[in-house]
Every structure is written in C-alpha cells, then in structure tokens.
Amino acid sequence: MQDSTSDSRMAKQDQNARHFEEHRETDDTSEKMSPNKNLKSPQKGSKRLKTAPFKVTLLDSAVFEGEIEKHSKGQTLMDMVCEHLNLLEKDYFGLTFADTDTQKNWLDPSKEIKKQLRNSLWHFAFAVKFYPPDPSQLTEDITRYVKP
To answer: What is the C-alpha to C-alpha distance for residues 113 and 66, in angstroms, rounded to an integer?
Structure first.
C-alpha cells in the first residue's frame, strides 16, 4: 500500500515538473517571438540610470561624496548636501565649481549639472552665497553657526 502511495506522489511530482517545463518553454518562446523593446539585444541590460560621482568640499574642509544621476539639476545636488548637513535654510548657501580657467562659478540650481560643467570632474564647494543683514532673524541655530 505504501508503495502505491509513494508511486502516486512521484508521478504527481513528475507531472508537475513536466507542466512547469512546458510553460517555461512556452514563456521562453513567447519572449523570443514578441517584439519587446526591452529585449533589444543580449549585450544591453535593463535600462539603468547613469550616475556620476561627485565631491563637495564643505565649509569645514570635510568632503561629502556620493553619486547623482547625470541628468540631475543643481537643486538636486544642493538638496543632497543640505540634507547631509541637516540644513533647512538653504537660501543663504550655494555650490561653486572651478571652470577650466579656475574661474569660480555658482552652480545654477535650475539647470542640469552636466550642462554647466566643462570638465568631467564633478567637484564642488559648499559656500555662503548671501549673508543675512540680521543673523538673529535666522530661524535655525544650525544656519547661524555654520562657519565659512
């Protein structure tokens, strides 16, 4: 009796395995036959976001490093730096970068970063852009004590 039970289990497992194989082959065939734009060529993988490494020298000379999508605007990087510093009052600060002539430029937050840089290195400096006329009106203590 036990032999017939184990035989029926094995038969069921074989049947399930064949069913799985049949469907897998069908799925493989349909993937090969369908004009799916995601399967253009075997060399190309799935569409990945292209990122660029960046370095930002902070006011205390510490360096904040990371990666950002290449098509990001300056505001995205500024937000990342301010988040790293726990800084809420962002309007007084900005990011600078050196031109090929070592000319210091402010990164425009509304434009793509890659369109503003002439070199491939994404090195920036976090800097004070505006000094408030009355620092006591700053709402966050951390903003007041960020040292230039």
So the answer is: 14
Nearest CA to 96 among 123, 75, 131? Answer: 123
* CB neighbourhood size of 78 (10 A): 20
pTM over 0.85? The answer is no
- Give residue for tokens 């090969």: 32
Fill in the amino acid letter for 122.
W
Fold of 51-132: Ubiquitin-like (UB roll) (3.10.20)
**Mean pLDDT of all residues in 13-31:** 51
Provide mean pLDDT across the span 46-55.
Answer: 81
Q: How far apart are CA 20 and CA 69, in angstroms?
A: 41
Nearest to 123 by CA among 73, 64, 82, 40: 64
Mean pLDDT of 14-27: 53
Domains of the chain, by residue range, sit at 51-132
